[in-house]
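Build the 3D complex.
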Amino acid sequence: MASIAVSEVDNTIDTPGRRTPLVTGDQTYASVTHMVSRISEESQPLIWWLTFAVAFPSLLMFGCLIIYLFLTGVGVWGNMSPVFWGWPIVNFVFWVGIGHAGTLISAILYLFRQNWRTSINRAAEAMTIFAVICAGTFPGIHVGRVWFAYWLTPYPSLNLWMWPQFRSPLLWDVFAVGTYASVSLIFWYMGMIPDLATFRDRSKSRLRRMIYGILCLGWSGSSRHWMRYEKAYSILSALATPLVLSVHTVVSFDFAVSQLPGWHTTIFPPYFVAGAIFSGFGMVLTLLIPVRAIYNLKHLITPRHLDNMCKIILATGSMVGLAYVTEFFMAWYSQNKYEYDTFVFRAFGPYWWAYWIMFTCNVISPQVFWFKVFRRNTILMWIVTIFVNIGMWFERFVITVTSLARDFLPSSWGYFSPTWVDIGMLVGSFGLFTTLFLLFCKYLPVVAVSEVKGVMSQHAHAEHRHGHGGDH
Amino acid sequence: MSEHQPKQKKIRPPRSFGWMAEYEDENQLLDAARKVRDAGYSRIDAFTPFPVHGIDEALNIRRTRLPWFSLVAGMTGTTVALLLQWWTNAFDYPYIISGKPYASWPAFIPVTFELTVLFAAFMTVFAMLGLNGLPKFNNPVFTDPKFDRATDDRFFLWVDSRDQYFNAEKVRELLEATGAKAVEEVWEDDSPTEVPKSIYAGIAVLILITLIPGAIVLNMRNSRSPYPRWHIFFDMDFQPSRKAQQPTTIFADGRVQRPPVPGTVARGELGPNDPFLLGYDPEGVAMGKGAAVNVQMVSYQQENSASQEPIEEPPAPPPPQPDTSAADDPQASATADASSEQAGEAPSKPAGDQAPTTAEDEGDAGAGPAAEGEPNYAWLERFPLPVDAELIEVGRREFEQNCAACHGLAGYGDGLVSRRATELAQGYWLQPTSLHEQRIIDQPVGRIYYTITHGKGKMAPYADALTPRERWAVVAYVRVLQRSQNARPEDVPADADLASARGDDTTNR
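Done.
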């Protein structure tokens, strides 16, 4: 039966003529089910509670700061003329970018039949949802009069006699992020239905059985259901693939459609999308390296998975580096002195430190993944992904703040300084993100069990066929 | 899991739903499914922990209609998005933004794309659930505790008792022959199927609680209250900043409005009475044909005649400059518009913006050229500053930088811009005025200064580009050009150096 006789965990080497195993350690279907289900069924390790003890108070602080913001006004932030888009928008773009890896893994890698995605897609999709929740919070509280935020929706208002302005990128953004959040959520949920049924069927307590029974909508595993389910999954992947590329494109329109030097560039959409995938994979690795160690998922999330993700980070990090260089080239080549000065200011002005933190973390630090030792050693890898996260936050900071800080009139030039509320909200958004991810680990299937089993089955068939001289 | 066992206490024996065979391997399941299918059974199904490759063919499962649902929903999304955006931004509430057309289809694309994906994605998931008959919480297969492994590592083949060839014994034999690990009959689930009343009650209470905020808002909107409004954000409704004319305790004089800081000049208030800045004497008397009326008076009368229609009073006294007729100056109304924009800088000039109306109203009444919006001032006839070679040199420099592009280096109205426009045969292009027309030569220096300051017709005002002294310098240079281009023989000094004069001439042209 579908056990794979590979005890050695080095599956990063491809042997010609042999399919490299994606699940190691002589697993059976039952052992895979057990490996994932026990995370939710057993009590959580001490490290979970320690992390939760930090993350949950941060989330509470985030809530308190939002209430303080509502009652006092946006003046509690460091947003001040000429930098009207400060950290809240930086955080928004940062989190939306992180939210790209999940759907990319679920949809694009699915369409390309990259079977290694099955071990990591669930956690990555969960990360996407939580990152988009963090992202959606910031523009929501940034509108100033939050109690009128519903004016963004096109509804026939008897009081306003007005409609939203559909020619504005900011409204496109509402639709793009809203669609992305809801489609990612429903995609994630649909993918989880069979695994929730597994949880239901393994439940010992009646309450647990009932809750998971309701959540999985009474999934039975009927082949007719599977057939429609797989078709739906393919269609959703095909729909989500352009969607995931469109979201950061539209977010980049927020900047690119304006006429500010440093923002008004046609390179922004691809540059933002590459950066989003880069930061998303960085965050996936940041989360999965501890998860696979703590929950002992090393046979499911194998070195090969980490190796592949490191290669994607290397590729997208280099694309981002190319975009940075191209921006400078265009600034020089355009001979537009405002554009040119903006970029010289970025790299060598008062914000030089932010620019070079960004450049070092995003372009130079992933280059270590050219070397195999960095793609094998999880601790080194984890450190690099932390740099990637820092670098991508600074990229958003550099784009947003340095372009605004130098207005056209030298008399309006300014220097942005965050307030304690800005810092608290950034920390608080990480608290929200971490709390949600911890709860996800505790209550939901961290790995897409049914998809892993499908890959194991395919692999066993392939090996079987191979053993019989490739006859069909 | 004992609650899933069929209970035998009931009088009616539990109904059989079918037979279920359990396999350890997906390959065994596939082989068994093909055998059962080939035996002629059609109401068969398999329950597996993951989609088994090849099971569709083995069970004769037809392809799903699901993609059609997605397609139709996607097209609905496209249509809804386009209609929504067109209706809201081009039809119901049209307004111009960034000079884009009302129906800016390219700008509508992002939202159209997003709604297409949104509709199609939701329809895909809900149609998948609907076609699968989910959610469905009581399924006969759930009655068997063994079946719990269908989502773990076991594969089940199912033959429904409603199949037209169904025969319990034959089916059991067939399934056993396929090498099943276990073959069992599935019984009706006789556990109570109704949801407990307490759950309904709980849901109802939850719904009621969620309705409370809305009900409060509705009640508040539709009722009267003796109490003042409730201000959640007090400082948004009552901002600490003071309004005009309110008292304050911050300043010693108790007034909110502050006097200007000493030494500052408000816009348009720089030397309002200085002929050097204005080009005319505001205290002086406009010298016209038989009319010696104060400028102020003329403007009052023009305002009156403009506001009273039909005109009963005699029209305003004809102002001077009879040599400028409507036919000569087709840009008259444009002039008025341009000069009205400059109202802030010429506080005491006549109400220029009303002048065009007056002109049209009074055209038949034989009103003078003043009705064309020509300002009527006591123009300075002499330069208010000493004219020397240095000033003329400044004037030459500024003229060649600012004026020559249209008026030409020698002032014939044949600058590069004009020549290019003529070459392109642009029908709407008006030749810039030649500075050597008799009416320009006859104009007082103050009048030319005024034209440079405020612009005229298509000519932009140059008050922002040139200082008053530079403007006077340009006037002086214009006078030099006029003198040079219209020179009479007696202007040439007897001892003139003709060679150097020729040189000057070529540089000027």
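Chain A touches chain B through 73 residues (CB under 8 Å).
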